[in-house]
Amino acid sequence: MISPKIEKALNQQVILEAESSQIYLAMASWAEVEGLNGIAEFLYTHSDEERVHMLKLLKFINERGGHGIVPTLKAPPHKYKGIRELFQEVLDHEIHVSDEINKMVDVCLKEKDYTTHNFLQWYVSEQIEEEALARKIMDKLKLIGDDRAGMYIFDRDITSLDGGQGPGKNGNK
Ligand code: FEO
To answer: Which terminus of the chain is less hemmed in, N or C, by CB atoms within 10 Å?
Structure first.
């Protein structure tokens, strides 16, 4: 059984994961309209995975005697200045998610909730992978600079940057 404090923290994380899914979905749609189909595919997949992260939390809360709450979400931005700005937002967002997960891990230790602490380790590993992937993408974009041919190749190859598995797979989704 989870404490009300842990339940509240987990439900906050449900909001964050659901928001992540919405943000990446809006980014994917923008990229698709811009004709960047590889980037769009990558972001659609990322959006799906964030939904799975949200669902996993929701089910865990319910299994542990709490109530997973499906949140109302604010609309994500619809437009981006460019690809670099978009992926910088992805990286910043993932760093924020990692910070929030770390805070939750800390709350679990303070509350002596070792079951939830154990459950959250999956998210800790996931965030390491997601941040690393976002940094790798930013490094590539810095290399490309304003080279349009480079961007064409980046769009074509982005889905294979992580070995073709899509973002954020740590093996036990
Ligand atoms: Fe599920 Fe990328 O945070």
So the answer is: N
